[in-house]
Specification:
The chain is mostly helical. It has helices at residues 6-11, 24-28, 38-48, 58-64, 71-80, 104-115, 127-130, 136-141, and strands at 56-57, 90-91. Strands 1-2 form a two-stranded parallel sheet.
Amino acid sequence: MGRLRDWEKRVFPPRKQRLPASSSKAAQTVMKPPQTPPEHTAICATIAAIPRGQIASYGEIAVRAGLPGRARLVGRVLRETERELPWHRVLRADGRIAFPPRSRAFREQVRKLAAEGVPVRNGRIDIARYGWGRDLDRLLWGPSHPKPTRARR
């Protein structure tokens, strides 16, 4: 084959030569694992801290992680992370499950929440009752006890 014409150089750029694995340049190249951004680490730690039987919204997790206004980042981290996190404890701000109703993920989230004693009704959870750190009295004094009734004379 002869020399390449100008148009052939543009259409068929020259290939780079591969070095054998034993060459010094290939041995010096070390693949570094990608660094996890500190924001992602903070979000994962916050999600992992949600107690069993309680829930939190995407926005609450962002605030607790020190990233107010970054609720969408929480969703992205949940979608992209490879860590085992209690993702089923994270809901929308109004207590609804974020997945489409009757989808596989929706059913799995309902099943996991029910296993922890969190009832789901019409795709919603009572945030006032099951929200993470929502009931300060219960947090400080323990579960409420029924009031004793007086015996009538």
